[in-house]
Structure formats: structure tokens, C-alpha cells
Amino acid sequence: MSSLITDDEIRDETELVWLEDVEELDYVRQSLDRLPTRRGRPAYHRDGRMIGYARLGPRAKPSRSSGTFRRRVFWLLPHDRDTDPDGLYASGAPAEAVDPRTLAPGVKGHKTERSKGGPLGG
């Protein structure tokens, strides 16, 4: 969940790579995934689609036990508002959702009125 991501877990981010135009999205889901590299496009193993991912700088250290890096991945599921506007999230948003306009490298972002299904200006 977004609220469980801490600032020190994302401090080594240098770039967010967007695979879609996030200006059109009310929210994206974010998670910290264990990935084998600092920068490459991660494999995607969820339903739905990957919207973007973070790249880490050279100071990022791999896990001592697994050799992997914790990196943010941004994604949406088939029942999210962008593809099912009258569905489960017609109002409200999933716990791990944030407004993509509030994200930046090293910034975990937050929900806004827009991401919670409110007016577009919010």
C-alpha cells in the first residue's frame, strides 16, 4: 500500500518512467517490487497493465539476502476506473492508489479529490 512506502525506501530513485500518458488517469496503484536491476523495465506479473516504474541511481544497494532491488511499479487492474468508470471504483480509490500528478522520484505521492472520484479540478 502507498501508505506503507517510506521515504527512505524510495530515496535512491532518479527517474519515473511512464508507459502511458498519466494526465488522463485519475489514479495509479503503486507497489514496491523486488527486481533484479536498478533501471531496466521490469517484468509484469499482475492482471491489468503496468503504467510505469522507477529507476534507481548507482547508490541504491541490493538486498544482502536476495541481491534484488526494491523499486516502485505503477499499475492498474481491469476493474479500475479508467476501464470501468461505473464499476467498483466509480467513487473512492484502492488503498494503494495515488494521483499520478503528485508523484516524482523519491516522492510517494498521495490521493487527491480527483483520485478519489471527485471533480477533475481537485
UniProtKB/TrEMBL annotation:
Residues 81-122 are annotated as: Disordered. InterPro entries: DUF6009. It holds the Pfam family DUF6009. It comes from the Bacteria. This is Transcription factor.
